[in-house]
Write a structure and sequence with these properties.
By secondary structure, the protein is of the alpha/beta class. The longest helix is centred in the C-terminal third of the chain and has 23 residues. The strands form 3 sheets. It has a 5-stranded parallel sheet, with helices on both faces. 52% of the residues lie in helices and 12% in strands. α1 crosses α2, α11 runs parallel beside α13 and α13 crosses α17.
């Protein structure tokens, strides 16, 4: 039978666990058209949470439409406009003829080019000339509101990897333009999220930035061990396998409650178990998972400078005074100024996270591999 644990893709229905408080908060924001910003490290389940809450709302209310947009590969302002227009038009239209009519009615000045491939991989091709975009971007930025008003609906627009807008040319002017339009929308709510915490904090928590206080700011936390225990035990019981409370707790704590790794390690333990899980199976699966990822970790080590490697070694050793003369010399980090620069560089690469004065590794298995193999 298929393994009962899901990772690396959206967790829905019975594969979605906990997040009751966050789900209710997000549902309230969707219903009241309150903009929401969700921030957490990569692979903590932001997309799963958003879709889970949106599906609940769509099932209970008929006049709501959902528009999901991913900016992962979007690097320029013009790409953003084209993608936004395409996804908004698609989300409120039931057939491609309706898309064409809506584009003609609401984007007439942009002269959009639309084609549709009617096959198994049905796909809408949507394009707008660069010159038209430069002259009339306002039409696209107000498209969602205009369509929502005309159809008497509410539209939820969820944008993943929103931090990428900070990389656009003249990003500050672009963000001001977005904020100026979106803050006036009364039939549309925006849910903006991403995984690069330091970039999103600058966009949404910096008082000098256009999106400061744009909406409700949610910091996604790890799922507590007590929530994982019944979820994992039930998944094992479905296949007539038994994992007791202590073994689940061991499993979860080994990967520091990281949602993606909890599911992945649970799968490895499930595959190794015939009837009853014992601690040795959990530890064997844990070490096997580290081995599986070791080549990826090894390749990443080649990209660190000597000073960065020294900094990582100091973290692994549990050093608290990273800028002290003794630490700088012992780990060959260089100057105290280097510590600041290294922190920033490692945060940008999503290696570490900084909350107050506490530095943590974003990937608990990378940290474990450094302890077990690299700095042993």
């Amino acid at each position: 039978m298929e393994t009962p644990f899901v990772f690396g893709k959206i967790a829905t229905d019975q594969n979605f666990t906990d997040r009751r408080v966050e789900t209710e908060r997000l549902l309230q924001n969707f219903r009241s058209l309150t903009n929401t910003i969700i921030i957490s490290p990569r692979r903590w389940g932001k997309s799963s949470l958003v879709i889970h809450a949106a599906k609940q709302l769509l099932m209970s209310e008929e006049n709501v439409k959902l528009c999901m947009i991913d900016l992962f590969n979007v690097r320029e302002e013009e790409e953003f406009y084209t993608l936004l227009a395409k996804e908004v038009l698609t989300s409120v239209s039931s057939k491609w003829e309706e898309i064409a009519v809506n584009a003609k009615n609401f984007l007439a000045r942009l002269i959009p080019r639309i084609s549709f491939t009617a096959d198994v991989e049905s796909e809408l091709s949507f394009g707008i000339g660069l010159e038209e975009l430069k002259r009339n971007p306002d039409d696209i930025l107000d498209l969602a509101e205009a369509l929502a008003v005309s159809k008497n609906i509410r539209l939820i627009i969820c944008i993943d990897e929103f931090q990428n807008v900070a990389n656009f040319g003249d990003s500050l002017a672009f963000q001001k333009k977005l904020r100026a339009h979106w803050q006036r929308h009364s039939h549309v709510t925006y849910c903006l999220f991403g995984s690069k915490r330091h970039m999103l904090m600058d966009v949404f928590a910096n008082v000098s930035m256009p999106f400061y206080k744009f909406g409700d700011l949610m910091f996604l936390q790890k799922i507590e061990t007590e929530e994982w225990i019944p979820f994992i035990r039930q998944k094992f019981q479905m296949a007539n396998k038994v994992i007791e409370r202590d073994e689940v707790q061991l499993l979860v704590e080994l990967v520091d409650n990281h949602p993606y790794y909890v599911q992945q390690l649970a799968q490895q333990v499930w595959l190794r178990t015939e009837k009853l899980v014992v601690p040795s199976i959990v530890k064997e699966a844990y070490n096997g998972l580290i081995d599986q990822l070791s080549l990826l970790f090894l390749n990443s080590m080649e990209t660190f400078s000597n000073a960065q490697l020294g900094f990582l070694k100091a973290l692994i050793a549990g050093e608290k005074q990273l800028s002290s003369k003794q630490t700088l010399q012992a780990y060959r980090i260089g100057t105290s100024g280097n510590v600041v620069r290294i922190k920033q560089a490692l945060m940008e690469r999503e290696v570490i996270d900084l909350q107050g004065n506490k530095i943590t590794f974003q990937d608990p298995l990378f940290e474990a591999w450094l302890k077990r193999d690299w700095f042993k």
